Structures are given as structure tokens and as C-alpha cells.
């Protein structure tokens, strides 16, 4: 998430009431999670396991819960609770805005686009030309929809990320300030749910097609011309490259990459990154030919045991 104007390190520290290391006027341009940070961004870290990763990342401001040596060319925000303070910044720069109408006045809707009755279009939403948005679709604030997109009834775009910190008092939610961005010629089936990014974008690129009841987690990127069948669940921060096919009831763990033109057969569980151009099956998913061989061998076990008894 980029800020509307550059802020100084001193101004950011004032918003969250923290100490800082760096020049008062050190420029701060935005805030992002570790996997999408760029120069000028704030990244937060609250576990020693990830200190080095955050300090060595492209982020130039690190919100951290320990006083450490500040890397050259960067700045630090020293906080007793970086998770809480990251939420404070999200709430400051991207606060919730209530809407008083089904189609927000700030929404921009292109020519020849049809919005069916009872659809909800939130604040600052952009919808391109020649789209069809069916009844009971909810498109939350700041989503961007391309041209020639069809979204079927009951789909929800822009729900919050499923991202929580376990505290003694219960689960503390990480606020979502990102967007959903949908490219041209995308079809989204009925009752799909596509969560917005925590600070970045959940993206579905040109020409991809989602069947009914597909879930896409926060900050996931789905490439061009992908096919995703019904009841597939994709966790957050997944990269699905172009022309991938996920058949029905596939489950995909967070933070992995599925390579171009991979095909995942129905009811498979993807637990690690997969190379492109191959067919996969099973849970955990493996190359389909090898997995089917394994299943054939398993069927031989009773015969083998009978032979051993002879």
C-alpha cells in the first residue's frame, strides 16, 4: 500500500507513538508485507526468526520489537508490539468507510456494464466496460475490475485476509488494507470469495476463469488463462503462473508457486511449490503418473501378504 503523499519517519513515529532510528525527514512512501515490500516501504517483524529477513529486505523502514543495529540506508521504528502498530498504520491510511447506497458515489463504472439488482459496489471501486455484475455480488472498497468481466451471483470480492496473531486473550486480527484486482475477460462463478491483500493486491490476471465456490486467499496472484474448478481453496500469498488448471476440490497451502501450465487433478492437496508443465495428483500432490503407480502398488499388498502366508 502506497501512502497518498510521502511521510517522514518522524511523522510515522508520531502516528504510532514509537521511538525511531534514522533522520527525522527520512522518507516513508508506503507499507507492505515482507513478500511484496519495495524501497520506501515499512515492513513489520516481531519474531527473532525473521529479524534478518526483514532487515535485509527491500523495505527501507523496519518496524521491529528489538533495538538492533540499523542497516545502512535504512531506518527503524522500535515498538513493543509491531503487529499492533502495523494495524494502527493500516487504520490510519486505509480506514473503513461506511457506504450509504448499493453503489457508492465514488465508484467508477465503465460503458455498457450491467449491474444487476441487489449488487453492492463499494467506495472507490473501478469497474471497466462491457462487464456483467449479477445480483447479490458484493465488491468491497477499492477493488479494480477490468473490461469484459462477468461475476456471478453471491460472489464476494475484497473480504478481509484470514490472518491472526494468537494472544493469551484470543486471536488478534491483522487489518487488511489491500485490494482485489481483476484483469480483462475474467469470469468469476457464483459464491466465489476473493480476499483482498493485507497491504498489496490479490490479483486475477487476464482471461482466467473461476468456477462456482472457489476461494482465493489474500495477496495471491493467479496468472493469465488459468482454469480453477469448483470448491478449490487457495491460501494466501500463492503464485499461480499462466495457464494452470486446478480441478475440483484442490487445496493449496500458502506461500508457494505453481508453475506455468501445471495441471492439478481433482481432490489433490498442494503442500509445496510445483514445476510447470506437469500433471499432479494426490495429497500431498506428486506427479500423477508416479502417484497412480503408488496406488497400484498399494492394491497389491493383500496379494503379497497372502503369498507370504503360503
* CATH superfamily caption of the largest domain: Hexapeptide repeat proteins
Tell me the fraction of residues in β-strands, as a range. Answer: 25-35%
Poorly predicted spans: none
Q: What is the terminal separation in angstroms? A: 70 Å
Q: What structural class do the secondary elements suggest?
A: alpha/beta
| Radius of gyration of CA atoms, rounded to a whole number | 23 Å
The counted number of beta strands is 34
> Major β-sheet, in short?
10 strands, mixed
What is the global morphology?
A: globular
Report mean pLDDT, rounded to a whole number: 96
CATH class of the largest domain equals Mainly Beta
Q: What percent of the residues sit in helical stretches (DSSP H or I)? A: 10-25%
Give the arrangement of secondary structure elements:
Layout (H helix, E strand, L loop, with lengths): L1 E7 H8 L2 E3 L5 E5 L9 E5 L5 H5 L5 E4 L10 E4 L3 H12 L14 E2 L4 E2 L4 E2 L4 E2 L4 E2 L4 E2 L4 E2 L4 E2 L4 E4 L4 E4 L2 E4 L5 E4 L4 E2 L4 E3 L5 E4 L4 E2 L4 E2 L4 E2 L4 E2 L4 E2 L4 E2 L4 E2 L4 E2 L4 E2 L4 E2 L4 E2 L8 E3 L4 E2 H12 L1 H9 L1
Parallel strand pairs: 3-4, 4-5, 5-6, 7-10, 8-11, 9-12, 10-13, 11-14, 12-15, 13-18, 14-19, 15-20, 18-21, 19-22, 20-23, 21-24, 22-25, 23-26, 24-27, 25-28, 26-29, 27-30, 28-31, 29-32, 31-33
Antiparallel strand pairs: 1-3, 2-6, 16-17, 33-34
Protein name: UDP-3-O-(3-hydroxymyristoyl)glucosamine N-acyltransferase
EC number: 2.3.1.191
InterPro entries: Hexapep, LpxD, Trimer_LpxA-like_sf, UDP_GlcNAc_AcTrfase_non-rep
Amino acid at each position: 500500500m502506497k501512502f497518498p503523499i510521502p511521510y517522514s519517519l518522524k511523522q510515522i513515529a508520531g502516528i504510532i507513538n514509537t521511538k525511531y532510528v534514522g533522520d527525522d525527514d527520512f522518507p516513508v512512501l508506503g507499507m507492505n508485507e515482507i513478500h511484496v515490500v519495495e524501497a520506501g516501504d515499512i515492513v513489520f517483524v516481531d519474531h527473532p526468526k525473521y529479524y534478518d529477513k526483514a532487515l535485509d529486505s527491500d523495505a527501507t523502514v523496519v518496524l521491529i520489537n528489538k533495538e538492533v543495529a540499523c542497516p545502512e540506508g535504512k531506518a527503524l521504528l522500535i515498538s513493543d508490539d509491531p503487529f499492533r502498530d502495523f494495524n494502527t498504520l493500516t487504520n490510519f491510511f486505509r480506514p473503513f468507510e461506511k457506504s450509504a447506497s448499493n453503489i457508492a458515489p465514488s465508484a467508477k463504472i465503465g460503458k455498457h456494464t450491467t449491474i444487476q439488482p441487489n449488487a453492492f459496489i463499494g467506495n472507490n471501486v473501478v469497474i471497466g466496460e462491457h462487464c456483467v455484475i449479477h445480483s447479490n455480488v458484493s465488491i468491497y472498497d477499492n477493488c479494480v475490475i477490468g473490461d469484459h468481466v462477468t461475476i456471478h451471483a453471491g460472489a464476494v470480492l475484497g473480504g478481509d485476509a484470514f490472518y491472526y496473531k494468537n494472544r493469551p486473550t484470543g486471536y488478534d486480527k491483522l487489518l487488511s488494507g489491500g485490494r482485489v484486482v481483476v484483469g480483462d475477460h475474467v469470469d468469476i462463478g457464483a459464491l466465489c470469495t476473493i480476499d483482498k491483500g493485507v497491504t498489496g493486491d490479490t490479483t486475477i490476471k487476464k482471461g482466467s476463469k473461476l468456477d462456482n465456490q472457489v476461494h482465493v486467499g489474500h495477496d495471491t496472484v493467479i496468472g493469465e488463462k488459468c482454469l480453477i474448478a469448483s470448491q478449490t481453496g487457495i491460501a494466501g500469498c500463492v503464485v499461480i503462473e499462466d495457464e494452470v488448471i486446478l480441478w475440483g476440490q484442490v487445496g493449496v497451502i500458502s506461500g508457494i508457486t505453481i508453475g506455468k501450465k501445471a495441471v492439478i487433478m481433482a481432490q489433490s492437496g498442494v503442500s509445496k511449490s510445483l514445476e510447470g508443465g506437469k500433471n499432479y495428483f494426490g495429497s500431498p500432490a506428486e506427479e500423477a503418473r508416479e502417484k497412480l503407480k503408488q496406488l497400484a502398488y498399494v492394491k497389491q499388498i493383500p496379494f503379497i501378504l497372502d503369498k507370504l502366508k503360503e
